[in-house]
Structure formats: structure tokens, C-alpha cells
TrEMBL record:
Keywords from the UniProt entry: Membrane, Secreted, Signal, Transmembrane, Transmembrane helix
Record-linked NCBIfam families: DNRLRE_dom
Protein name: Carbohydrate-binding module family 96 domain-containing protein
The keyword Plastid belongs to this UniProt entry's keyword annotation: no
Subcellular location: Secreted
Coiled-coil region list: none
GO CC term (a single one): extracellular region
Main subcellular location: secreted
Residues spanning the membrane: 12-32
Domain Carbohydrate-binding module family: 314-465
Organism: Thermoflexus hugenholtzii JAD2
Length: 495
């Protein structure tokens, strides 16, 4: 892999991306008209439409959450280079003056595993005279893997550590292998390329934004001849180490999963090779459309967290470190989904949470397929600046409150389940906007089997500037009911 790094720059992706200074995302397409659409049904049940999907036979759903609902990342496989913006996305931590937040991106090809961390951090410090034992006392990251998927340290357990620096440095990397007696040093090839954005490393000015590091771990270094077969499950944990001054000791570490212990693989999450797939064979018998019927209804709560359409890219340093992560936007009429490779622009990043009730689906049925539809009305950037976004769908790990959800308290993702490309709009499309769809069959089948609502998160692993995509929320005015998020589910009888 090749990355470009330098002073005051964020880690680019495999192809070289020139990073500029913090770019404020424009609203792009303006809200030019508000014509009420014709009314449409909101929560209806009927016969299966003739155009419904026909799906082939399913394997039984694999229960991947046997241990306390520990989260998992489904890593997509790629031929050749690993596209940065299509890597699986996950995250952990919080934004504050003394706490770090981290986005995780994961992908793999036949030769190597790619794990990229983008870390929001106000003070960037590295060790001028590092040793393997002191790497984690400064800004650094640890990747923990167990290739057997086991719950105890063994020869299948690996610990890869890399410290922030201005350029790749072997003296700031270390790898250890597990054993019954604990971790032991070992020399195997891997790479960890850092990058950063801010005033300067190792200074006391409070004007840094964060740093990033891309790990590439050859499968040959783990004793494998090639990538694991699709469906293989390993253990994975990520730990981010933080130091905010030269005099004070390192601060509390943050981890994915939050309870991860470096010496106990039973508390690590799961790394599943390949995206989940769902297929069902059943005689179609039912169909339902679920969306909020009127604005005052509590049905289908949704919320935007982070750089929302009304709060994009704020530049005040006090605000972004102290208030940005604690802002609630549970009742905005629209929302933004946004990410990019330049970690300096994290005040522009935004996620979307939405919950659909499934109790109107009769019990004892087989979910055949399900589709989420959102209506896009605009995007960040001036015409010609925006790029397509691979917007990912994830399952939330817990319930949340529309009145109180924020970037900092929103539940983490339990697992990623797929995605869809969303193109930028070249002109104002008129209301209700342009429908964009995602296959959420796997997620609905999982939630239905557990007797729970469908709790989704949408986020992206974008690389380019101006990546924000704007959609209509459940809280839009009643004249725009058709633009509200819509879940369609088809079910049937198994034989």
C-alpha cells in the first residue's frame, strides 16, 4: 500500500489524495419549492405486489451474537486495491477536550487485511525516544486479532501497535503474539502509516483536529497462505491510546468494543470475512409499508447526529470540542449523511438513526425481503464538486431516545449489513426528492426473529470532500408525507 503523509495532513487512501485546509460544506442544492405531494398510504397491509422480489432458498440465519451481543464488523472483500470509501465502517469513543472519538474502516483482499483509524484528538503527542514498552503511553493505536475466533490468548492471538509520528517509522511499530503465559515479542511484517491534521505535533496549542493511521497486515504474517474463506470469523478489538501533554501521563484509553481487554479475547468483538447475505424461500402472502403517517405521530422516530444540515462544519474551537458532540437534532425535517478522509473536517461528519416498528407483521412468518427508501433532495458542495457516496446500513446495538440522542450518547453499531451508491444531484429535483433504496432484508429478518423493532444507522466511509447527502426525515411537514423514510417488507409461509 502507498500513502502520502506530511506535516498537517490527514492520511490519504491508496491513491494519493491531496488534502487542503478545512473546507466548509455548502448546502449545495437550495430548497426552491414546497409543493405538497399527493397523499399516499402510510401503514398498510395487503397482498404481495406482482413486482415483488423472488428470492432463492435461505441458509438458516447464523447467530453471530452468542456472547453478550458483542459487536461485529463484516469486512468486504475486494479484488486488487481496497477502495477506501467502500470499506466497512464502525466507530467508538466520544468527542470532548479530553476524550477521543474514532472511525474504523475495514476491508481485505487476497493478500492483506486493511484497518484504518481516523481519530478526533485535540492534542497530538508522540514519544521522541520510543521503545516497544512505551509506545502506548503516547498517541498510538493497537489492533488485537485472534485468528481462531477463540476466547483465550493463544498462538492465534496477535497484538499490533503503532504510534503517531510525522511519517512511517519502524521504531514506532511493534507486534506481539499470544501464548498461555501472555504476550511475547515477535518479528513479522506489517505496515502502519500515520497522518495528522493540526498546528504541529508535540506542541501545547489547542488547534489540532486529529490523526489517522492505516494498518495493512499481510495474511502471510499471520501464518496464512491467502485470505480466509468467506464466512470465517476472527476476534477483533481496537484500542486508541491518548496523551495530551509532555508532562502529564497518558489519558484513559478508548476501545472497540468498549469493554475490550487487551488480555482477554472473550471481550473482543468479531471480524467476519464477507458481507452478510440473506435469501429466503417462502410462498408470498403479505406485504406492508411502514412510515410515519403524520408529523405528530411517534411512529418511525429518527434523528441526525453530528454535522446536520442546520449545523454543518462549525469552526468555533470551543463549540466543536465541548458542544458539538452533545447537540440533539431529533426533530429536524431533514438530515445529512457525511464522512471523508480528511480528519480535520470531522465537524462535518454526520450519521442518521431511524427505528421502524415491526409489530404489524404477523408472527410466525418468513421474511422474504425488505427495502428502505429515503428521499434525497440535495447534497454538499457546488454543482460538479460532489461525488457519489457508498452509504452503509448498520444495525444499532441498543434503543435510543429521539429527544436526547447525540453523537456522544448514540448507540454504537452492532453490525454493518450492506450499502448502496447515492449519486449527487445536479439540480433541484422538486419534492419529495429522489428516492434512494437499500436492501435491508437481513436486518429486518434479524430484528423480526428477536421480536424487536428495526433499529438502523446510516453512515458512510467516504473519502472525497463535499460528500454530504441530504434527505427528508420523519419530521417533515405533513404535505411531504411521501418523502418520509419508508420501510417495505414482504413475507411468506415456509413449507
Amino acid at each position: 500500500m502507498s500513502f502520502e503523509t506530511g506535516r498537517g495532513r490527514s492520511l490519504p487512501v491508496r491513491w494519493l489524495i491531496t488534502l487542503g485546509i478545512l473546507t466548509l460544506m455548502g448546502m449545495g442544492l437550495l430548497l426552491l419549492s414546497r409543493r405538497p405531494p399527493s397523499p399516499s398510504p402510510t401503514l398498510t397491509e395487503g397482498t404481495l405486489p406482482s413486482s415483488s422480489p423472488t428470492l432463492s432458498a435461505p441458509p438458516a440465519l447464523r447467530d453471530l451474537c452468542a456472547l453478550e451481543m458483542l459487536p461485529r464488523i463484516h469486512a468486504p472483500y475486494f479484488e486488487g486495491l481496497i477502495p477506501f470509501e467502500q470499506s466497512a465502517i464502525a466507530w467508538f469513543g466520544q468527542v470532548s477536550p479530553t476524550r477521543n472519538y474514532t472511525d474504523i474502516r475495514v476491508g481485505y483482499n487476497a493478500r492483506e487485511l486493511f484497518i484504518y483509524l481516523a481519530i478526533f484528538d485535540r492534542h497530538l503527542w508522540y514519544d521522541e525516544n520510543p521503545t516497544p514498552q512505551t509506545l502506548t503511553q503516547w498517541d498510538a493505536a493497537t489492533i488485537l486479532l485472534d485468528t481462531s475466533g477463540g476466547d483465550r490468548l493463544s498462538l492465534s492471538s496477535w497484538r499490533f501497535v503503532a504510534q503517531l509520528y510525522s511519517e512511517p517509522s519502524p521504531s514506532r511499530r511493534n507486534v506481539e503474539r499470544g501464548s498461555a503465559e501472555g504476550w511475547k515479542p515477535i518479528h513479522v511484517p506489517f505496515n502502519a502509516v500515520p497522518g495528522w491534521r493540526g498546528n504541529a505535533l508535540n506542541d501545547d496549542r489547542e488547534s489540532d483536529r486529529g490523526w489517522a493511521i492505516g494498518f495493512t497486515i499481510p495474511f502471510s504474517s499471520l501464518g496464512l497462505t491467502s485470505a480466509p474463506p468467506e464466512g470465517t470469523i476472527w476476534r477483533l478489538a481496537v484500542r486508541v491510546h491518548d496523551r495530551d501533554s509532555i508532562e502529564d501521563p497518558s489519558l484513559e484509553e478508548t476501545s472497540w468494543p468498549p469493554s475490550a481487554s487487551p488480555d482477554d479475547p472473550s471481550c473482543w468483538g468479531f471480524l467476519h470475512f464477507g458481507l452478510p447475505a440473506y435469501h429466503a424461500t417462502a410462498v408470498p402472502t403479505g406485504y406492508i409499508r411502514i412510515r410515519r403517517p403524520v408529523r405528530s405521530s411517534p411512529l418511525v422516530p429518527d434523528a441526525n447526529v453530528g454535522g446536520t444540515t442546520s449545523n454543518q462544519c462549525p469552526g468555533d474551537e470551543y463549540y466543536i470540542w465541548n458542544e458539538w458532540g452533545n447537540r440533539n437534532d431529533g426533530h429536524a425535517p431533514d438530515f445529512n449523511i457525511q464522512n471523508q478522509s480528511d480528519v480535520a473536517d470531522w465537524p462535518c461528519f454526520a450519521k442518521y438513526y431511524v427505528t421502524f416498528p415491526l409489530d404489524a407483521i404477523p408472527r410466525g412468518k418468513t421474511i422474504i425481503s425488505a427495502t428502505l427508501t429515503l428521499h434525497q433532495f440535495g447534497n454538499a458542495g457546488d454543482p460538479g464538486q460532489a461525488r457519489p457516496s457508498w452509504i452503509q446500513v448498520l444495525i444499532a446495538s441498543a434503543d435510543w431516545d429521539e429527544e436526547a440522542i447525540t453523537w456522544n450518547n448514540a448507540p454504537l453499531a452492532y453490525e454493518n449489513v450492506g450499502g448502496a451508491w447515492v449519486d449527487p444531484l445536479l439540480e433541484w429535483p422538486g419534492w419529495p426528492g429522489v428516492p434512494r433504496t437499500w436492501d435491508v432484508s437481513y436486518a429486518v429478518a434479524q430484528a423480526y426473529a428477536r421480536g424487536e423493532p428495526l433499529r438502523l444507522i446510516l453512515y458512510s466511509a467516504d473519502s472525497a470532500y463535499h460528500s454530504g447527502k441530504y434527505f427528508v426525515s420523519s419530521d417533515t411537514e405533513d404535505w411531504n408525507t411521501e418523502g418520509r423514510p419508508l420501510l417495505e417488507v414482504w413475507w411468506g409461509e415456509s413449507h
